[in-house]
Design a protein that fits this description.
Elements lengths: L2 E4 L9 H16 L3 E6 L9 H14 L5 E5 L4 H13 L3 E4 L3 H13 L24 E4 L6 E6 L3 E6 L7 E3 L7 H11 L4 E5 L6 H10 L6 E5 L2 E2 L15 H6 L4 H10 L12 H7 L10 E2 L2 H14 L2 H14 L11 H7 L6 H8 L11 H7 L5 H13 L5 H15 L3 H13 L7 H8 L1 H18 L1
Parallel strand pairs: 1-2, 2-3, 9-10, 11-12
Antiparallel strand pairs: 4-5, 5-8, 6-7
Bound molecules: glutamic acid.
Glutamic acid binds next to loops.
């Protein structure tokens, strides 16, 4: 069975690059009818935090990248790593090394001075050292002395490295903790990982990992090392470029569908298609269509994709998201209000859920000031009479519903012998603060009588003072 894994180190939030790796792993496993494993690589006790683990889990849950297995935690598997290290020692694939930091430092310096690649010289390789309680010792993997390691990477093609280039890497530190390359190998082996998809910053580790896997008699997985993500300026994506944590996009009001769609296109393509449902991504995904060159993060494109989803998802889904956002922002609103018509109008015109909420905020709260242009156009002297008439007639109106309100507005246009715009537009600016809203009668119904009348009164004051 095909098995992929996403193996983040919990030293920060789930960033865009990590989320993309997780998505590729998830997609590939789904496409192949396999399994997707989540493994938390928390062996770096100083830098790993529970908050970061939670942030990773939250990010994956938001994107709907649920693992079929895990999360596994490496810190819970120390005994198993010890067991494998012991096995490697017994079989002669590993040995104890007592070289001091100072010796290794001097070695390094002399190699650098001689313009050689710094590497361990194998000083303790054949000493047959045994662990000694009094002496700090590390365990090194006995890398094969000759031959080459090669693998056919799904993105980079064939990669071959001569064993002579690889030195005997440390697999257990002197404090007894396993190193990254050892724990990854043991886990990939024990968890039956068949495909390793990860960032290409790990490509240099792969030949070493393959050698350890071979020493353990374990099958070697297939690899796909995906190129990094660059910022708009061509430099590696980082905080400098703005939000890099996926949950920052949740906070900013992006839709998970849009984020996933955006991520999948960062390094993968399928013809010219830009918008993919999750099912389409899964159906069309293939490792061999992963891009070979780095992709650039482009906020404009993310915005465009988000807009596409805002416009095309079922209205009730967007309404639910708006309601959740209102709750999150602790905006008090009348729950009997039907938000659907207003959300439907504004979703065409905004980029994010947050902007949507901002746009309809006038329904729930008094706005601070009018949109300048809108007021300059509509709240002028000719608006005074229509507004004053509306104030009176709205107060007298028997039933506060769109049909009755519409009738009142028509009555005013007749009485004053003006067009619809001369009444509707001042009213719109008066009650919404801006110059677009759903049909004004519906907007007024939505707002409620009291709020509407109070805002009309405020607009009358405004027109009177600027006069
Ligand atoms: N824990 C490693 C990281 O976060 C990934 C290891 C791997 O995928 O092999 O960079």
């Amino acid at each position: 069975m095909i098995k992929t894994r996403f193996a983040p180190s919990p030293t920060g939030v789930l960033h865009v690059g990590g989320a993309r790796t997780a998505l590729f792993c998830w997609l590939f496993s789904k496409k192949m009818g396999g399994k997707f494993v989540l493994r938390i690589e928390d062996t770096d006790l100083e830098r790993s935090t529970p908050e970061s683990v939670q942030a990773i889990l939250d990010g994956m849950a938001w994107l709907g990248l649920d693992p079929d297995e895990g999360p596994y935690y490496q810190t819970k598997r120390f005994e198993r790593y010890r067991e494998v290290i012991e096995q490697l020692l017994e079989q002669g694939h590993a040995y104890y090394c007592q070289c001091s930091k100072q010796r290794l430092e001097e070695l390094r310096e002399s190699q650098m001075a001689a313009k050689q690649k710094p590497r361990y010289d194998g000083c303790c390789r054949d000493l047959g050292l045994k662990p000694d309680a009094g002496k700090p010792m590390v365990v090194r993997f006995r890398n094969p002395g000759e031959g080459i390691v090669s693998f056919d990477d799904h993105v980079k093609g064939e990669i071959s490295v001569s064993n002579a280039e690889l030195d005997d890497l440390i697999i257990e530190r002197s404090d007894g903790s396993p190193t990254y390359n050892l724990s990854v190998v043991v886990d990939d082996m024990d968890m039956g990982i068949t495909h390793v998809l990860r960032g290409d910053d790990h490509v240099n580790n792969t030949p070493r990992q393959i050698n350890i896997l071979r020493a353990l008699g374990a099958p070697v997985p297939e690899y796909a090392h995906v190129p990094m993500i660059l910022g708009d300026d061509g430099k590696r994506l980082s905080k400098r470029h703005g939000a890099v944590g996926v949950m920052e996009y949740f906070d900013a009001g992006y839709l998970p569908q849009a984020m996933l769609n955006y991520l999948v296109r960062l390094g993968w393509s399928y013809g010219d298609q830009e918008i993919f449902t999750r099912q389409e991504m899964t159906d069309y995904f293939s490792l061999d269509a992963l891009n070979k060159s780095p992709s650039s993060f482009n906020s404009e494109k993310l915005n465009w994709i988000n807009q596409q989803y805002l416009m095309s998802l079922p209205l009730d889904e967007i309404v639910t998201l708006v309601m959740q956002r209102l709750d999150r922002l602790e905006i008090d609103y009348d729950r009997s209000i039907d938000l659907a018509p207003i959300v439907d109008l504004y979703r065409q015109r905004v980029v994010t859920i947050n902007e949507l909420v901002d746009s309809i905020d006038y329904c729930f709260r008094d706005f601070e000031s009018y949109d300048e242009k809108a007021a300059a156009r509509a709240l002028k002297l000719p608006a005074l009479e229509p507004l004053q008439r509306a104030q009176v007639l709205f107060t007298e109106l028997e039933s506060w519903d769109a049909v009755s309100i519409h009738a009142v507005i028509q009555q005013i246009t007749k009485e004053l012998d003006v067009g619809m715009g001369k009444v509707g537009q001042p009213l719109r600016v008066a009650v919404t603060g801006g110059s677009f809203s759903p049909p004004i009668d519906q907007t007024l119904e939505l707002l409620g009588r009291q709020r509407s009348i109070a805002r009309v009164a405020r607009a009358i004051d405004y027109v009177t003072t600027i006069k």
